[in-house]
Amino acid sequence: MSRCQIKTAKKDEYQIVEFHGHIDEAFMFVANSIPMSESYIFNFKHLVSINSSGIREWILFCQKIKAKKVILTDCPKPFIDQASMVDGFIPSSFQVLSFYVPYYNEDTDQEKLILMQMGKDYTKDSNSIPNEYTDTDGKIYEIDIIPSKYFKFLNK
User: Fold this and answer.
1) Distance (Å, rounded) from C-alpha 91 to C-alpha 122?
2) Beta strand pairing status for 132-134 and 110-117?
3) Which of 44, 94, 88 has the alpha carbon at shortest distance from 65?
4) Whole-angstrom Cα distance, residue 117 to residue 125?
5) Is residue 107 left, alpha or beta, with left meaning phi > 0 and alpha meaning psi from -120 to 50?
6) Are strands 69-73 and 132-134 parallel, antiparallel or unpaired?
7) Which domains are assigned to the chain?
8) Which of 5, 28, 123, 146 ranks highest by number of CB atoms within 10 Å?
9) In Å, how far are 15, 35, 65 from 9, measured between CA atoms?
10) Which of 156, 45, 21 lies closest to 100 in space, CA to CA?
């Protein structure tokens, strides 16, 4: 049994699908229960991980989708890591509307995940994602990834 669960809801023309847990070798059993639609919003806010078998299952799932529009939101670091490393992980017809970037404060040994949004922080052609983030308490966090590798998916 897959450790991934989904929640679905219909809003306007979109089938909204929330992914919870882990995408693994049994992902397709869960994915087959997603209702057919011409437009999807896939939300990954509660996705924890993707293993190597899950990568294969995700790509196969994406190839089966015949929707006119697929929007990806709240993509966490494990998802973005794979998108930047694996060709075809995010099909060119899919659009990433938001994703998380990890920032780290060495003094407090804390990490913050900051949501970056299409049109505000990046576009398909460029990004203005800052190297530092200042929280409401004035603590400065430095970006905790290698930008040229992490943001590679934006150029695919």
Assistant:
1) 19
2) unpaired
3) 94
4) 14
5) alpha
6) unpaired
7) 4-155 (3.30.750.24)
8) 28
9) 6, 9, 17
10) 45
Task: Write the pLDDT tens digit of every residue in 16-62.
Answer: 999 999 999 999 999 999 999 999 999 999 999 999 999 999 999 99
Q: Which residue has the tokens 């896939």?
A: 42
Pairing state between β 69-73 and 39-50: parallel
3-state SS of 39-83 is: EEEEEEEEEEEECHHHHHHHHHHHHHCCCCEEEEECECHHHHHHH
Kindly report the number of other CB atoms within 10 A of residue 90's CB atom: 23
Q: What is the pLDDT of residues 87-118, one digit of tens each?
A: 999 999 999 999 999 999 999 999 999 999 99
Average pLDDT over residues 68-82: 97
